[in-house]
Amino acid sequence: MGRRRIQRRSRYTCIMSDCLFCKIIEGVIPADIVFRNENVVAFNDLNPQAPTHVLLIPTLHTENAAGVARNSATITADLFLAADQIANDRGLNGYRTVFNTGEDAGQTVFHAHLHLLGGRPMAWPPG
User: Fold this and answer.
1) Measured between alpha carbons, how far is 41 from 24 in angstroms, rounded to an integer?
2) What's the pTM?
3) What tens digit of pLDDT does each residue of 81-105 get?
4) Among residues 53, 61, 111, 113, which one is catalytic?
5) Could you tell me what percentage of the chain is helix, strand and coil, using 3-state DSSP and rounding each to the nearest 5?
6) Is residue 125 a part of any domain in this protein?
């Protein structure tokens, strides 16, 4: 009772039955998927903060970027390589990638996800 069911799909995939992003990976919740491979699923953000705002999620369920890095250097690299491919496919001259870690940083879904933002000039500092 109160336990979350974990399903293993492949060497790296671990799906939590009550996770929004895991449901997107599984196709239970629809999303505008723009990239998919064994380790990464990417889709357009529903609340874009730039002309290009894509969320890249690892197929391994872990709460934050440090968890992804602890579990798999391969998946960590694949997230950034997928972001670069999407940016190049969209002809972006530059882009920003952001991981929010924890509520204080603005993380609202506790499945690690990399934001790819581009298509407009970015200010510094952010936030």
Assistant:
1) 9
2) 0.87
3) 999 999 999 999 999 999 999 999 9
4) 113
5) 25, 25, 45
6) no
